[in-house]
Amino acid sequence: MADIYLTKEQWNRLPYKSTTIKKGKTHGDIIGLLETHNIKNYQLTSYQGSDQLAFPLTIKREDVEREFSIKLMIPKLYYLKPTHRGRNSPKTMTYLENTSWRMFWWYLKSKLEAIEFGISDEVREFMYNINYALPNGREVSLGQAIMNNIDQVGQLAALEERKVVNVDYVEVEKK
Question: pTM of the prediction?
Answer without folding.
Answer: 0.78
